[in-house]
Design brief:
This protein is an alpha+beta fold and 201 residues long. Helix content is 50%, strand content 13%. The protein has a 3-stranded antiparallel β-sheet. Helix 2 packs parallel to helix 7 and helix 7 packs antiparallel against helix 10. One of its GO terms (biological process) is chromosome organization. This is Terminase small subunit.
Length: 201
């Protein structure tokens, strides 16, 4: 049975093959445009297709199911990404000495430790020991941002599901009906709130 075949739960949700593939691809990198292209939709309309797909209730539900069962449904690529994020998010910074370290110290780091390193700088110091000139290499490392990896893990596992927010007027009606406030930034929400206060005097 194919991976996509395994992902279907007794055909509970009626999706086309392209829609099912779109859900699968979206769970890998959360890029709706690229997911649409990889699913076989017209590349020139991929942005609009991805946007429209994410608005469809049956597709949103299928993606939520896949996120809830990531190990079973998302496939090897997503799992590998998740594992890499896990290394970064839960790395112990105490294992890494701040400042410059010798090349020998750097080479003694494990593969998992090295996977947490975003950037490496090197320098060579020349000095004389007795009458002999000696060159010693040093390495300075910069680690990946742990918080970004934690955020990525939350997104991949669906822990960051948006909380519905509603702003009502004096009559109790939602003043921004039709606008998904969960997709707005904090700055945009603040702007809406200020406009609301002005509108209500």
């Amino acid at each position: 049975m194919s991976t996509l075949g395994k992902m279907k739960d007794n055909n509970e949700i009626k999706l086309t093959n392209k829609q099912e593939r779109f859900c699968y691809e979206y769970c890998i990198d959360f890029n709706a445009t690229q997911a649409a292209i990889r699913a076989g939709y017209n590349p020139t309309a991929a942005y609009a297709t991805g946007y429209e797909n994410l608005k469809k209730p049956q597709i949103k539900k299928r993606i939520e199911e896949m996120q809830a069962n990531l190990a079973r449904t998302s496939g090897i690529s997503a799992l590998r990404v998740l594992k890499e994020h896990e290394k970064l998010a839960f790395s112990n910074a105490a294992r890494f000495r701040s400042g410059w370290i010798t090349l020998k110290e750097f080479e003694s780091l494990s593969d998992d430790d090295k996977a947490c390193i975003q950037e490496v700088s090197t320098k060579t110091i020349k000095r004389t020991i007795g009458d002999e000139p000696v060159e010693e290499e040093f390495v300075k490392i910069k680690l990946y941002d742990k918080q970004k990896s934690l955020d990525s893990i939350s997104k991949m596992l669906g822990f960051d599901a948006p909380v519905k927010q509603e702003i009502t007027g004096k009559d109790g009606k939602n003043l921004f009906e039709g606008i998904d406030l969960s997709k707005l930034s904090q700055e945009e929400l603040t702007l809406y709130y200020n406009l609301l206060k002005k509108a209500n005097g």
